[in-house]
Amino acid sequence: MARRAVALARSERSGPALSADAILAALVEATIVVDGDDTILYANPAAEQFFGTGASLLVGHPLDEFLPQDSPAFSLLTQVRLSAAAVSESGVTLSSPRIGARFVAILMAPMHDGDQRVVISLLEQSIARKIDNQMLHRGAARSVSAMGSMLAHEVKNPLSGIRGAAQLLEQSLGEEERELTQLICEETDRIVALVDRMEAFADGRPVERGPVNIHQVLGHVRKVAEAGFGRRVRFVENYDPSLPFVWGNRDQLIQVFLNLVKNACEAVPEEGGEVILSTAYRQGVRLAVPGVRTKVHLPLVVSVQDNGPGIAETIREQVFDAFVTSKVNGTGLGLALVAKIVNDHGGVVEFDSEPRRTAFNVMLPMQPVTREEPWRSGS
Ligand SMILES: Nc1ncnc2c1ncn2[C@@H]1O[C@H](COP(=O)(O)OP(=O)(O)OP(=O)(O)O)[C@@H](O)[C@H]1O
Ligand SMILES: [Mg+2]
Fold it and tell me: Whose CA is nearest to atom 9 of ligand 1?
């Protein structure tokens, strides 16, 4: 790695000079260096964020001020020093009063400078997990999309035949039997509505995107909700007024937040139901999303939070899969469609759920900054 940095620094490429400091500052991994006594010698900005304190309060202090002695980090440190080789472990929980409980992947490497110094990188696994989930959703969305187009052909056509036949029969039947033909019509209508929803997945065209004011989208969704399924719910808006435009498709984003707000309204208690819509700009989160070569910058976070009982434990792993539902009349397509649309936008959706606080967080890309603004180029 050191050799590569030197190679980069010496390369003839143009652009601002590349310094090791700038590289360390850009890392998403919280990176620190400790000496032979486990005193912190260096902390990058991601480490400051991870430990919730500035570098000046980290450097010169023993690591066990921030992590308890019995934490797995210390056994890994011993291991690195004994083996003089890098070690890594994922799925480690680090907890202390200062940092709370954090789920991380740890990578430690000796510096080989005869001083027992060790470089420690910590990567929050929620980010890694988001990427994994993202892959899962892509698969789920794909299988539904194949099924959507199949159903449209194979099911809708025969259904319209069945419905037509039932209507014909109805004319020659008595009052009592007519109820049965009406039942056939109602049930076929229900299936057609379901297939229509699935057809939304079959649309494989690339999304037409433009700058979208997400606050307008949320305002629209709120109005729709207040006129119907969210009549008894109190809405709270917690917006960052300086939020840049999302780079997306307005109609599809309305669909995303309508599905999320509908779920939230269906989850809250009859009395005192509350749904909080919030937006925030989160600098510096870049994710390596599968299938995309460069890391994507997803700084816009839109959350829909409710005070319902939380997502049932048994379906947590599959909530984004199609047909997973805990509702009597649910189709389980709402969140699958959310996942598909957010994926098509190059974004990520994830949730945090506990009783009285369930939040679905959608991370979206912002409008790209163009070098040449067309209205100024004179063309
Ligand atoms: N805010 C929430 N709080 C608690 N559980 C939720 C929440 N959102 C989703 N769920 C759970 O996830 C399941 C799947 O949601 P999804 O929107 O995909 O389908 P649905 O709401 O059941 O049906 P549909 O959206 O098709 O009407 C729900 O049945 C519910 O159990
Ligand atoms: Mg739903």
Answer: 263
